[in-house]
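Researcher: Re-running this chain for the archive, since the previous output was lost when a drive failed. Same request as before.
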Amino acid sequence: MSIQLFYVIIGVIGWLFGSVATALALIGQGAVFRKAGKPFWHTIVPFLNSWTLHEITWGHGAYMFLEWIPGAGAVFSILTSVKLGQAYKKSGGFIVGLIFLTPVFEMILGYDDSIYNGPVQW
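Model: Regenerated structure tokens:
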């Protein structure tokens, strides 16, 4: 086997893995949106996706622009994950999972029996 063929095979495997991971992340987030009463297709549209997530967690989508601030954006993203877990009355351990493995825990959140309770006010 030539080295070029090896690189092609590795590239195709990487592309397939990335495509499946992206599809699963979209399905998980779409289920979270649907549970909160938002349309599933909001997951697919750039910016509307983020706007809807911030509507669910903070009560207003304009908070998404705070994630664009360098440095503070990372902190705000973590706070958004915390508020997402609290909106569904999840435990601290589940919220840590949302922070570090967001697509996996959004899939769990979207398909478990939890109920959306609206944005939690701090």
